[in-house]
TrEMBL record:
UniProt protein name: ABC transporter ATP-binding protein
Family membership: Belongs to the ABC transporter superfamily.
Gene Ontology molecular function: ATP binding; ATP hydrolysis activity; transmembrane transporter activity
UniProt key word Nucleotide-binding: yes
Matches recorded under SUPFAM superfamilies: P-loop containing nucleoside triphosphate hydrolases
Length: 233
């Protein structure tokens, strides 16, 4: 579904230069990978690179759904940017740390926005079921300001998967919740992603859940003070 090889991403310049490398990542449909490592090790940078937001400094291979897009990702110009934006909106879903819901749309409108942009007008049974499992069926008419942080995060998650992307990238999607609610939301997210066959890359500190779900880990390893490498364990 997705194969990435020899991706290097960099941030800052001079003394502040910092780089993250990913020797290899293969993801199958419905597979969940947990990105783990200490604060500042480059987890968000990695997610932005995987999500075609940050242009890599170098790249060996990027294959998405059987399509080799290495050149496109490696050197985007204006025309290629449009192609990348199209691939992102069609095949990728994002749950940012901060939620990312639009304040002037209701929860229901937020959730269906991306799917509508893709021209999808009907929702499959798994989606209706997901609304119930996330416990947000009574909240769909509310605006984000009328929701709790946890409810907003549930909406944000469903918004990111409603168009049924191939890959969901979630950057600490439960960070704002207390451990109990974080664990239960994490569990529901994993179940929904797996049942919908959506591959998921999730930055998380939910160590127990990562172990109990036997998730593959992408673990940060220090190569030098200014260089980290993410390896599959
Ligand atoms: N826009 C930027 N310009 C320059 N340096 C940056 C930028 N964003 C992040 N960095 C630096 O890059 C490194 C990696 O940051 P990143 O946010 O990817 O880490 P993280 O593992 O996600 O951290 P956390 O767990 O605290 O969210 C850090 O040293 C950070 O200071």
């Amino acid at each position: 579904m997705i194969t990435i090889g020899d991706m290097v991403l960099s941030r800052g310049a001079g003394d502040q230069a910092f780089s993250v490398s990913l020797p290899v990542l293969r993801l199958e449909a419905g597979q969940v990978v947990a990105v783990t490592g200490p604060s500042g090790c480059g987890k968000s940078t990695l997610v932005e690179g995987l999500g075609l937001i940050l242009t890599p400094r170098s790249l060996g291979q990027y294959e998405l759904l059987g399509q080799d897009i290495t050149d496109l990702v490696r050197a985007p110009d204006a025309a290629r940017d449009t192609q990348l934006a199209h691939l992102r909106s069609q095949h990728l879903g994002f749950v940012p740390q901060t939620g990312g819901v639009l304040p002037y749309l209701t929860a229901g409108q937020n959730i269906l926005l991306q799917a509508r942009i893709q021209g999808q007008s009907t929702q499959p049974p798994w989606f209706t079921d997901a609304i119930v499992r996330l416990g947000i069926e009574a909240l769909l008419e509310r605006y984000p300001r009328e929701l709790s942080v946890g409810q907003r995060q549930r909406v944000s998650f469903l918004r990111a998967v409603a168009h049924r992307p191939a890959i969901l990238l979630a950057d600490e999607p439960t960070a704002a919740l207390d451990p109990h609610h974080a664990a239960s939301l994490f569990e529901v997210m994993l179940e929904i992603a797996r049942e919908a066959n959506i591959a998921m890359v999730v930055v998380s500190h939910e160590w127990d859940l990562i172990d109990s779900f036997a998730l593959t880990r992408l673990q940060a390893r220090s190569v030098s003070p200014s260089q980290m490498e993410f390896v599959t364990t």
